[in-house]
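User: Continuing from earlier, I have the next pair ready.

Assistant: Great, send them over.

User: Here they are, in order.

Assistant: Folding the first of the pair now:
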Amino acid sequence: MTRSVCVVGAGAAGVAATYALRDARAEVTVLEKSRGVCGRAATRRRDGRRYDHGASHLPVADERVAAFVDEFGADGLIDIEAPVWTVDETGAVNETDSDPTRRVAWESGMTQLAKRALAATEAAVERETRVMAMDRDERGWRLTDDDGGSHGPFDVLLLTPPAPQTASLLAATGWASERAIRLREAVGSVEYDGAHSVILGYDRPLDREWFGLRAATEDGSLQWIGRESVKAGHIPDSGEILVVQMGDAWARAHEGEFESESEAIADEVAALVADRLNEPWLADPAWTDDQRWRYARPASPPPAAALDAGEDDGLYFAGDWVAGEGRVDAAIRSGIEVAERIRP
């Protein structure tokens, strides 16, 4: 029997689940609030340049993630061979790759992860569709979007937005079940650290051996400095783009300034980077960009097995928050694992 499945969210977890269901007896509909896909694995373009301003790459340390990536072939795939080193608040660099796993990206940007996965399915993808409420009756799950549109009924509902947004949907449900309350409490217990990406563009190259510098501790202001020039196809001419990810404490301290003081914030970050790398010219980028990520890193997963309570009613969950790791590979694993439980 073919089952109808609705996946809310076209981030890494949602597209991985959709892809894993491609040869199952399932008709899949994906509802995505944005115009784009792949969530924080996001790519922007500027003057012929590309840069991944969210997830900088995909770590491939799991067999399921490796199979997922390799299904799409080598065309446009980048195996990043340059290392990731660590740096402390004094600028001291440890030239040892603490996690020397395979790292990949795409010449056209990290969004290719979702675009290629969805293209390999027959799923119906409805973009710019923000789900506001959900309900369940004897025919299945029904959803309402912010334009008043109705979707369903579906036999199975998979929720993949960040935990606070998923908890809001559970709070807006007319689902008459005590399990709804338990699930909302479990999902609502997940806390997040935020982040802020600042992109610094330069008209001259930065000669370094590393692909990225990762902060030695989680409380550091500069959590990540990544060189987009390492990725083929991202910077066609001579130059450099640094994607700098600031930590949660820094982002909170600057909350409220992001809209009105973005240029001043970029100047501050560029000065920090120049000091950290001991390269004074980095304090004066040719151009800048930025993005606030409110739900960047889940601090902890929900209580063990708490999310299983909805499965008898066809309600499932996936995302990096389910795994308790703010990594795109964790989101992919979560999507694949939940698809295995959904498969009829």
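And the other member of the pair:
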Amino acid sequence: MSSGRRAYDILRSYVNREWDRLRDLDEIRARNELDAPTIPSSPQAPAEPAAPAIPETPQSVARKVLGVEPSAGLDEIQRAYERLCKRAEPSRFAEGSDERKIAEQLRERIDQAFRVLKEDLDPTEKRFRSLEID
């Protein structure tokens, strides 16, 4: 084997190893992002006394799932939905793997949250729901 070919093989193995490491880091960051609370708490903030529990509405839960503010409009909600759908696409994972099952569950939660928020915000959907069909 020539020295040029050997150097190429060594360099190629190094690049492949680093590529795999970066892909694993990206996957870890994506999981942490999906598992992280939607509103990060700062460690310097003083602890406030516990407020009485307010029952969460389906809209507030859906906003937490999509990670959007309560004042977010339909466009912002659609962008968040599309971004999360790309990240939780089950076809990106091996058939029958645990990651694929988790991605399918996440995708169902994301779809449900989007449907809940879209029903309240999309004027076209409101008009069609109010139509009576004989």
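Worth noting for the second one:
Residues 1-35 form one domain. The mean pLDDT is 79.
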